[in-house]
Amino acid sequence: MSRMAGDRPRVLSGIQPTADSFHLGNYIGAVRQWVALQETHDAFYCVVDLHALTNGEWDPAELRQRSRVAAAQLLAAGVDPHRCTLFVQSHVPEHTQLSWVLTCLTGMGEASRMTQYKDRVARYGAERIGVGMFTYPILQAADILIYRADQVPVGEDQRQHIELTRDLAQRFNHRFGDVLVVPEPYILKATGKILDLQDPTAKMSKSSESQAGVVDLLDEPAAITKKVKRAVTDTDTAVRYDPETKPGVSNLLTIFSVLTDRPVAELEAAYDGMGYGALKTDLAEAVVGFTSPLRERTLGWLDDSGRLDDVLAAGAAHARKVAAETLTHVYDAVGFIQPRE
Ligand code: TYM
């Protein structure tokens, strides 16, 4: 089923409130695109608190606080509730309702092939992982399909989950009629995978054992400067973009380019022959110049949590209207008796 002709294409994305701060990878890989897309798309963005339970261990007070900190950071980064629908996932119960239907259409095999799940099993052993970790990509599919989103702006690590979402939407439509929209991933090649500053073979990740190579948006300036200056590069000295042979330097150039709006080629030319020290010093300054005001704005939103909660309530009210409509069609299509008004 398509939405009315003439509508702007719709995007949906989510971010987990599982850390005290987002990191630069979250911002550059995803949130920055969210901000841009709200100008041209009908945008839905959510703090996925249901997903935050999947590791099986959470502290209720901490989760509540992190969910607000997550929303505050999104607002501070430029997600604008006048231009998009910003909400918290648990405020819209239709996500979990659709998730159950999709769960019953998902094969054990295809769920078992999700690399994030396989990585967890490899790391902790299957016995120590909850069922929620296993079914999590199905809930993610429901997040997307309940809004009939056309595109999903995410980092490269989410590509496989979007593929599963597409498969489930196609399977559903094939069996029950054209109810769901099959979404496309929206992943920018240049910025879809920001690397850990200490280990430029791995993505920057909140779950890395060492956080020395993870730059948090809410880090103090001194901590950020230290992390950037200690970034692992290589034994060469040439400031050159070459992700294959020089992943560390290339990653720094990518971050620098995004934060300063200067093309990578221009940066290569500017730092030609100057070595990595100068590049790191200036990059540290650029990162701090970006994060400091963002941090201030985040704290401003957190100081006024009544206003923050109002924004989230308005977002949830709108999101629920859209989600409820899809769910009605889904429930009808799969054969549930429509409840009396
Ligand atoms: P999460 O919370 O781990 O990450 C949020 C977003 O940040 C991106 N990202 C990165 N991008 C580039 N480089 C990196 N190093 C990097 N690290 C993280 C992620 O790709 C993501 O876009 N399952 C999702 C949350 C989710 C979701 C959804 C996303 C739940 N429902 C529906 C889209 C649509 C997750 O855990 O993202």
SSE layout:
Elements: E1 10-15, H1 24-37, E2 42-47, H2 60-76, E3 84-88, H3 94-103, H4 108-112, H5 115-124, H6 131-145, E4 151-153, H7 159-176, E5 184-186, H8 221-229, H9 247-260, H10 264-270, H11 275-303, H12 305-334
Parallel strand pairs: 1-2, 2-3, 4-5
Q: Short summary of the structure?
A:
The protein is mainly alpha-helical and 341 residues long. It has helices at 24-37, 60-76, 94-103, 108-112, 115-124, 131-145, 159-176, 221-229, 247-260, 264-270, 275-303, 305-334; strands at 10-15, 42-47, 84-88, 151-153, 184-186. The structure holds tryptophanyl-5'AMP.
Task: Give the key terms.
binds tryptophanyl-5'AMP, mainly alpha, 52% helix, 341 residues
Question: Can you walk me through this structure?
Answer:
α8 runs antiparallel to α11 and α9 packs across α11. β4, α7 and β5 form a beta-alpha-beta unit. By secondary structure, the protein is mainly alpha-helical. 52% of the residues lie in helices and 7% in strands. The protein has 12 helices and 5 strands. Tryptophanyl-5'AMP binds next to β1, α1 and α6.
From the helix content, strand content and strand pairing, which structural class follows?
Answer: mainly alpha
Order of the strands making up the biggest sheet = 1-2-3
Radius of gyration: 21 Å
What is the number of helices?
12
Sheet bearing the most strands, described? Answer: 3 strands, parallel
What portion of residues is helical? 40-55%
Query: What best-fitting shape do the alpha-carbon axes yield?
Result: globular
Mean pLDDT: 96
Which hetero compounds are present in the coordinates? Answer: tryptophanyl-5'AMP
Number of E strands: 5
